[in-house]
Amino acid sequence: MTNLKVISTGPSDEKSHKTSNPSTPQLLNPSTPQPLNPSNKIIYISKHFESLKIYVYLHMEFKEAKSKFIQTWGALGSQWGINKTMAQIHALLMVSQDALSMEDIMEELHISRGNTSMNLRSLMDWGIVYKEYKPGERKEYFSAEGNIDELARKIAKERSKREIKPTLRVLKDVSTIDTGDSGEAAHFKAKTEELYDFVSRADNMLEKITEQKENWITKTIIKLMT
What we know:
Elements: H1 13-20, H2 38-76, H3 84-95, E1 100-101, H4 102-109, H5 113-126, E2 129-133, E3 140-144, H6 148-174, H7 183-210, H8 216-225
Antiparallel strand pairs: 1-3, 2-3
């Protein structure tokens, strides 16, 4: 019978059998980072996913609320004498925590540079938006009037200047016509004179109210209620 010799080219047979035996428990180095148990991984990921969902929900809720406010304020703009885009820019600046650059406004409202620039100039003419400069920055930044009483006062004054004053001039001109013997012309003159007196009194009252720079809205409401 031929004798066979086994030649080992690696670890000893005993060591090799120990490492290859699946039933042999493997000892891990305590200093080596241990992987998470699969069930723990699921809990860990689940918790972070829930946190992410809450963050996304709150962020989307804020973005939607902000967009809704800007759109609504823009629609109301025509009622106090400005165009929709102008009112939307004002709304954006009013609710922004920090001053915004022209590029910020363009990106947020998806409007052109020319449109943004033109409406910013108009808002500054109204006195309800201000230009700011930041140290080390070449960009111009813009912010809105933060005091609501002051904002209402300035809007009221601008509306008087842009709407009521021109109306008064027209009423004064048309109420001074020579009626001659025409009964129709006399009736027209009498009615336009009445309108002139009424609008003039309303404008004078508005001017007196807006001269009260501090809490003029509250003071006016209190006067009306007492």
